[in-house]
Write a structure and sequence with these properties.
The chain is of the alpha/beta class. The protein is built from ten helices and 13 strands. Helix content is 33%, strand content 30%. Strand 8 and strand 9 form a beta hairpin. The structure holds adenosine-5'-triphosphate.
């Protein structure tokens, strides 16, 4: 049995369908990125998986049990999107409280995680910045080495160094056979760490892909500074080139083909002076590849 399985999982808030007919299998030992824009239904899904919300229809199984079965809670680690901790307790007191609740947490595990994330355990939680408060939540989620980590936009507010450490922690957990369910609205974040990604939009899961496959299909926006001599047709002839615009000394296009082929085609006609590429954002990927399914 997979750590997370849902069938036809549906949630309406009043008449509003926030989640429609979700069929999802998250496999053991993978980091599964759950990717979608704001309001797509990510937190709703997570709250259903945790038994915080009741589904309108369909089923969810988490670690082989119903989400409402509290007995399996200690096998879970969870970081909510809106982490609420007791503001008057210090980080140390907060972690000690959670450790006692769960049992079996080694102090040196807490110490190691604290050091890795550079968390401040001495300040009252209410006095910490949101990023530093988030670190306390992450230590709490990881400290009992749970079988399944459910993380709702956990990167919010972390600085780049800490983010790297946190990505490494997720990868290590997966390498040890634990499962990570990571929600995010940022493709670049998810693709660094996830094995597979599910893309959700307006309450519907529109694709589940291996990250490697998604990366291969990713559209880039490219700007080339060139000398004169190039015409749009030269660039349009390269497979994967779209929306080509040639100005005097500048070419702009969207591209999902082989970069070497593009550069060779350009260099055959003119001198290439500079290249600027930007990754298409999530919305562009949706529009490019999933338009038919919307
Ligand atoms: N308690 C609620 N009552 C009514 N509508 C709600 C409620 N909670 C969420 N919604 C709506 O359901 C939709 C999905 O919300 P959800 O919080 O699951 O999205 P999300 O993908 O987590 O977004 P974000 O990235 O902004 O956190 C949104 O349109 C939201 O406005």
């Amino acid at each position: 049995m997979n750590p997370i399985e849902t069938r036809g999982l549906t949630k309406h808030y009043g008449r509003f369908p926030a989640l429609k007919d979700l069929d999802l299998d998250v496999r053991p030992g993978e980091v599964f990125g759950f990717l979608g824009p704001n309001g797509a239904g990510k937190s709703t899904t997570i709250r259903l998986l945790l038994g915080e919300l009741r589904s309108t229809a369909g089923t969810a199984t988490v670690l082989g049990a119903s989400p409402r079965d509290v007995a399996h809670r200690r096998r879970l680690g969870y970081v909510p999107a809106d982490l609420a901790l007791w503001p008057t307790m210090t980080g140390r007191q907060t972690l000690a409280f959670f450790a006692k609740l769960r049992g079996g947490v080694e102090q040196r595990r807490i110490d190691a995680l604290t050091e890795r994330l550079d968390a401040d355990l001495d300040k009252r939680v209410g006095e910490l910045s949101s990023g530093n408060r988030q670190k306390i939540g992450l230590v709490a989620a990881f400290m009992h080495s749970p079988e399944l980590l459910i993380l709702d936009e956990p990167n919010a507010g972390l600085d780049p160094l800490v983010q790297h450490e946190f990505w490494a922690m997720m990868r290590e957990a997966a390498d040890e056979g634990r499962t990570v369910f990571l929600s995010s609205h940022t493709l670049s974040e998810v693709e660094r760490v996830a094995d597979r990604v599910g893309i959700i939009r307006r309450g519907e899961l529109i694709a589940v892909e291996e990250v490697a496959a998604l990366r291969r299909r990713r559209m880039r926006h490219i700007e080339l500074d060139v000398d004169a001599g190039l015409v749009a047709a030269d660039v349009e002839a390269v497979a994967g080139a779209r929306d080509v615009v040639v100005l005097d000394d500048r070419v702009e296009l969207n591209f999902d083909g082989d970069m070497a082929a593009l550069l060779a085609a350009v260099s055959a006609r003119t001198t290439l002076r500079d290249i600027h590429t930007t990754e298409a954002d999530l919305e562009d990927i949706f529009l490019t590849y999933y338009q038919d399914q919307s």
